[in-house]
Design brief:
Mean pLDDT of chain A: 81
Structural class of chain A: mainly alpha
CATH architecture of the largest domain in chain B: Beta Complex
Helix content of chain B: 25-40%
Shape of chain B: elongated
Radius of gyration of chain B: 23 Å
Number of domains of chain A: 1
Largest sheet of chain A: 2 strands, antiparallel
Number of helices of chain A: 14
Low-confidence stretches of chain B: 1-21, 153-229
Structural class of chain B: alpha+beta
Strand order of the largest sheet of chain B: 2-1-7-5-6
Shape of chain A: globular
Number of strands of chain B: 7
Radius of gyration of chain A: 25 Å
Number of helices of chain B: 6
Largest sheet of chain B: 5 strands, mixed
CATH class of the largest domain in chain B: Mainly Beta
Strand content of chain B: 5-15%
Distance between the termini of chain A: 34 Å
Largest interface: A-B, 53 and 56 residues
Order of helices and strands of chain B: HEEHEEEEEHHHH
Low-confidence stretches of chain A: none
Distance between the termini of chain B: 57 Å
CATH topology of the largest domain in chain B: Ferric Hydroxamate Uptake Protein, Chain A, domain 1
Oligomer: heterodimer
């Protein structure tokens, strides 16, 4: 029999978590390079669509809406503070707040006064960018399994890795706890909304999240995470010194690369030094840690494709930004409609491809449904 | 497009500044105005010294009153001066300039020494008889010391002003150079868009109203409430396309959620 050459949809499986993180960080890099509200709106819609298409049943998969709300909150806060203490010299006045006269030494700050359209828009543009970054991280949290992400860390990083995972899962854990507590209260016919019920919900939620974090820590400890494995103390100290300095240099280098105004020494040299140092630390530390992996996450074509989408998006945006920065930053003085530049738009639209390139997630409900139908028949 | 609009506005400002400001090309005599020095030295120019007559309401108004043309950063709500007379042309003029290449703002008594301005040009109100300095670079003061006030009789002849300041204004007349440059660039751009054209009368009106008000010295006379409604620059095709795209994606997402609900339900 000749093999069937027609395209068949791959079997549902969970994508490698690092592929989702690569995709999300690529889109976040793209978002950080622009203040064009049209581009950012498209980017957030793209991220949301991919999340809706490819999230699983896991509790953390529902966290995305919480990140969206957080993003809206960021924009609102920015606008309010900008209206209160921002400088507004000229422009189209929307309304005027009562203005407070400050003494001479604080004259650079304007409390209240006229609020102009330009000023509000500047706050919205900046807030939108930050909200887009939050959405990208939220998407990665919703799509990637944080507990499996830990396995793909190099062995020498296990000691920090558990801290990283606890930190990364805290927000999804909290959202999950809120959902559980609210569901429990609904089942008991308790009113679920209103400020007065906040106390009734907050305590169980905090308690729940804390006890689950402790559970996770205990489970990781029993599996050998964060154990020194009887290595000599000198070696352990050298390893952690290497890794910590390396990671610090990496952070500095990345900051220098992303921030155009940083001194040149902070950029590439610090990044290289960080890579070398942490690489040496990982090599030394990794020698003494031997762990086998049960059911390793494969890295197949779909992972390459999803990760590649993020890298292409970030790369094209960086190139477009260096080619013509004016397109990515619309003018407010004078106030004009922002353009929708074609090349960055295409780069962002590449980010939507994982909605089809990634395999369908494994879903308990979908698995159960055929059985139910069979049982009913 | 955006760049062109900025240039056209700058041109209008320069064109206005020439007839409207009887700026004398020297330091002010006594308290007749605010002396303004702009140090182009690090950009390969001179250090023109001029007088903004009367009592300008703030540092930007003084700069304009002395016949210079500041350009503001396009995305900064505060009036951040990123170029004066179109220099430096390599600054993108979007956000604040880098800390090692920006126009720093200085104050001085005539014949005194420079002090760094802690307040931006749009918030600081220079008193008549004082000297304002603008220097490009990493926050260094202007390379010439603040000139002494010229005596009223010698006000028009630059030779008696100050030893350091006198040659530069006669040698270099930046207004003319600036205007010429702007005209050349505008003529290179064939059709300025309606907004750019419409925006420039606005800014001229703004400058014109700001100057008479300056003598009355209300603290925030720079706020211009335009009676005109917010008006788009032509048809915002980009915005429409983006909205359509976002709506498409959102409706697809809603459909997907509904399908999932159906799958999960029952």
């Amino acid at each position: 029999m000749a093999p069937d050459m027609s395209w068949t949809e791959p079997l549902p499986r969970a994508l490698h978590p690092m592929a989702w993180w690569l995709w999300a960080l690529g889109l976040a890099t793209a978002a950080s390079r622009t203040t064009n509200p049209l581009l950012i709106a498209v980017l957030v819609a793209v991220v949301g669509y991919v999340v809706v298409c490819r999230r699983g049943d896991a509790p953390w998969a529902r966290a995305f809406s919480a990140y969206l709300i957080l993003g809206l909150l960021v924009i609102a806060l920015r606008v309010v503070f900008n209206a209160l203490i921002g400088a507004s010299d000229d422009g189209h006045q929307l309304f005027a707040l009562p203005s407070v006269a400050l003494p001479g030494w604080a004259k650079g700050i304007d409390l209240g006064g006229a609020v102009t359209a330009e000023q509000v828009l500047a706050a919205v543009y900046e807030g939108l960018r930050l909200a887009a970054l939050i959405c990208c991280v939220g998407a990665a949290n919703a799509l990637a399994n944080p507990k499996r992400a830990l396995r793909s860390l190099p062995p020498a990083l296990y000691e920090i890795g558990s801290a990283v995972v606890v930190a990364l899962t805290l927000a999804p854990q909290l959202v999950e706890s809120v959902l559980r507590v609210r569901r429990a209260r609904r089942l008991r016919a308790a009113p679920g909304k209103g400020l007065r019920n906040l106390r009734a919900i907050a305590m169980p939620v905090l308690e729940d999240a804390l006890s689950r974090s402790l559970q996770l820590a205990a489970a990781m400890d029993s599996r050998g995470y964060g154990r020194s494995n009887g290595a000599p103390q000198g070696l352990r100290r050298t390893t952690s010194a290497f890794v910590l300095t390396g990671l610090l240099a990496l952070c500095l280098g990345l900051y220098g690369l992303l921030d155009g105004t940083a001194p040149p020494l902070v950029g590439l040299p610090a990044l290289t030094a960080g890579l070398v140092l942490s690489g040496a630390g990982l090599a030394i530390g990794g020698r003494r840690v031997r762990r086998s992996t049960y059911r390793p996450d494969p890295w197949r074509r779909a992972e390459w494709a999803v990760g590649g989408c993020g890298v292409v998006c970030a790369g094209v945006m960086l190139v477009a930004g260096s080619y013509d920065p004016l397109l990515l930053h619309p003018s407010l003085y004078p106030l004009v409609w922002p353009d929708l530049p074609l090349l960055p738009l295409m780069a962002i639209l590449v980010g939507v491809l994982p909605a089809w390139l990634a395999p369908r997630p494994v879903r308990a409900a979908a698995r159960r449904a055929p059985q139910l139908q069979a049982a009913a028949a | 497009m955006m760049l062109r609009a900025a240039v056209v506005t700058a041109l209008a400002g320069a064109a206005l500044a020439v007839p409207a400001a009887p700026a004398t090309a020297a330091a002010c005599s006594q308290d007749s105005g605010v002396t303004v020095i702009v140090d182009f030295a690090s950009l390969g120019g001179g250090q023109p010294t001029r007088c903004a007559p009367g009592d300008p309401s703030n540092g930007i108004a003084a700069l304009r009153g002395a016949g210079f043309t500041p350009t503001r950063a396009a995305q900064e709500p505060g009036y951040f001066v990123c170029r004066i007379n179109g220099k430096p042309a390599n600054d993108p003029c979007q956000r604040t300039s880098p800390a090692d290449a920006y126009w720093s703002y200085w104050h001085a008594r005539p014949g005194g020494s420079w002090t760094y301005g802690n307040i931006g040009g749009s918030d600081y109100d220079p008193a008549p008889g004082t000297v304002d300095g603008w220097a490009f670079g990493a926050g260094k003061p202007p390379s010439t010391p603040p000139p002494r006030a010229s005596t009223p009789s010698a006000g028009r002849s630059p030779s008696t002003v100050g030893p350091a300041a006198s040659p530069s204004p006669t040698r270099k007349v930046p207004t003319v150079a600036g205007t010429g440059q702007a005209t050349a660039r505008t003529s290179a751009a064939p059709a300025p868009s309606p907004t750019a054209a419409a925006a420039s009368p606005d800014s001229t009106a703004a400058a014109a109203t700001a100057r008479p008000a300056a003598t009355a010295a209300p603290p925030r006379s720079d706020i211009v409430t335009r009676s005109k409604p917010l008006r788009p620059n032509g048809i915002p095709l980009g915005a429409i396309a983006a909205v359509v795209l976002v709506l498409l994606l959102v409706s697809a997402a809603v459909a997907q959620v509904a399908r999932r609900r159906r799958e999960d339900g029952t």
